[in-house]
Amino acid sequence: MQNCVDASQTGEVDLVMGNIAHGGYCVARLDGRVVFVRGALPGEKVRVRLTDTSKASHWFGHAVDIISADSHRVDAPCPVAGECGGCDFQHVDVSFQRELKRRVVAEQLSRLAGITWSGKVEAVDGSSDGLGWRTRMQYRSLNQRPALRRHRSHDLVQVPQGGCPIAHPAGRAAAETACRTAEQAIVMVTSCLTEDPEVSVIADGQLVSGGETMTAHVGQRRWKVGAGGFWQVHPGAAEALADAVVEGLNPHQGDEALDLYCGVGLFAGLLADRGVRVRGIEVSRQAVALARRNVPGGRFTAGRVERVLPRMSTKANIVVLDPPRKGAGKAVIQAVARTSPRAIAHVACDPAALARDVRLFDGYGYAPRSIRAFDVFPMTHHVEAVAVLEPKV
What we know:
GO terms for molecular function: rRNA (uridine-C5-)-methyltransferase activity. Helices cover about 20% and strands about 30% of the residues.
């Protein structure tokens, strides 16, 4: 059954949900048109409020009433989960969230790269209930309280009393304090978790409390990280991804390695500890300065990877690349292939971008030996993956 309510009159329609899609939506159909529905689960019948009907090919909607619920549906732990754009899956049992993400990764790899993937989305240490994990949060101030954007909107929603449930508790009080001082200020709260957690607050680009740098830990090793720079936001993410990269590359003493989009040198540091000579490229000059501090034996260049790497004549035994959400793209992948590595570890935060990059690598003679996915963004549709590629035989 598709349409029990006249959507043109009410803006609401009853739909039966199809498969999960990239972005956290379920796919439904209305009079031959695709409708992407937020807040639903595959197989459910829900009343959908249409929120965007501007495109001829597809519309967007939000579930406002569950007519027949899936067994994996739960009560959202956050009272503003249906309004705030920060979470997609608070209505889903945590273990089934990983199954939904697995389906998305498999579908993207199949459709965009022609790969059949039978892996799973692995849990990581630090948030068995999917809450209290996010160590970096960016808020706006609304009525002197922390607020986040509504889904696909610039409108704001105040976080509940006690703080955003997925934000790490170490930073919640600092967010409340900072947001009392300036209406509409952009407030970034960063926590680094040790026995005595460090918390820094940046408001409208200015450090207002805490240090400019913080200390992050992976295993027994430490890295200095910029309070406003990049580091994995889940407490268990850096270690899980680093283990997957190092295990997948199997570095040898004396190897030459490239760490592309290297940030402050997470992967470079672990490879250097194993006797690998590392070169890193990163666009952020602040991050490069910290990488040189974190990995004194490495060589690091500030610049865009797509511009710097093609000009380098170096060969590499192993390569790590951790590109932004859009992926590495053709120019970078072509330049990586020219270095003739025996193994490449591609870290990706978007399964569609990973699939596109894997397809490009295939054209240069590299195919995935393994692809692992990790649930380092619980309650959201996001998923991180590590693909290890080797030359095709």
